[in-house]
Design brief:
Radius of gyration: 18 Å
Protein name: HAD-like domain-containing protein
Keywords: Hydrolase
Organism: Mycena belliarum
Strand order of the largest sheet: 4-3-2-1-5-6-7
CATH architecture of one domain: 3-Layer(aba) Sandwich
GO molecular function, one term: phosphatase activity
Number of strands: 7
Pfam families: HAD
Length: 263
């Protein structure tokens, strides 16, 4: 799925966090939140869950790129006449935060560990929902690396991909790899759950994969198939105990990865 050439970004990146011992990068939809906001919009405002799941399986198998499948999902929402502002309000009413994320983020902040959201969604909708869930002050302290949205005078809108030449649309590995080039690179924790996280999965130092109750555990299936070490977690309460153990030196990254679960 990924292109061999390094994809050029159409959007700026926030500065890399230098001189940090640890950095947390996390997917947004279905990882920090309990439900994927784009899936929610597609299921309820677009062409529906059955067609979305069929598309996800095509992406997982490699028969379709994430970029093209995701674009089709969003186009179905626009085709049904839903404005971007309407979508944001719908998400603010229905998307919930992982029960442990606030405490996780507070602990990271207190220990000088940056938390960065790395998402294949759209930054304006993420920022709107995040501010609604944690307040503007906390939300503004968290960098968001995501796609953008373009709204036409007619009100129709479409996604502006960060890496339009990449099959991912937003190749999340590009948010991780600059850290690897630092003289003293930090240890990178990455949290994800789905097909959009596949490009980042093998580049994280400690990869957390969220276990979901609905059976849509595509990233776990991919990591198992590809032999990528990962830790299964159900919420950020579990994840925090593992991160604390690594940061304190109580456990090494290899030790927590060998266990395979945060439970």
């Amino acid at each position: 799925m990924a292109d061999d050439a390094i994809p050029q970004s159409t959007l700026p990146y926030p500065p890399v966090y230098r001189e940090k011992r640890f950095v947390v990068l996390s997917d947004w939809d279905g990882t920090i939140t309990t439900q994927d906001s784009n899936d929610y919009m597609t299921d309820n405002l677009g062409f529906g869950k059955a067609k979305r799941r069929a598309g996800n399986l095509e992406i997982l198998s490699g028969r379709q790129t994430f970029r093209d499948g995701f674009r089709e999902m969003l186009e179905s929402i626009v085709a049904n006449g839903h404005s971007f502002d309407e979508c944001k309000e719908e998400l603010k009413k229905n998307i919930k935060l992982d029960s442990g994320f606030k405490d996780f983020n507070t602990w990271c902040s207190a220990n000088d560990i940056p938390v960065v959201i790395v998402s294949s969604g759209m930054a304006p909708s993420i920022r709107a929902v995040l501010s609604n869930l944690v307040g503007e002050e906390v939300a503004n302290s968290i960098d968001i690396i995501a796609n953008e949205v373009e709204i036409e005078p007619s009100g129709k809108w479409h996604i502006k991909f960060r890496h339009p030449s990449s099959g991912y649309g937003h190749d999340k590995s590009r948010a991780i790899l600059p850290y690897k080039d630092l003289v003293s690179p930090p240890l990178l924790f990455f949290f994800g759950d789905g097909v959009s996280d596949m490009s980042a999965a093998r580049h994280a130092d400690v990869l957390f994969v969220k276990q979901k109750d609905d059976g849509e555990n595509d990233l776990a299936a991919y990591c198992t198939r590809e032999g990528i070490p990962h830790i299964i977690f159900t919420d950020f309460v579990q994840a925090l105990s593992v991160v604390k153990a690594v940061v304190s030196g109580e456990k090494t990254k290899d030790e927590v990865l060998a266990r395979g679960t945060a439970a």
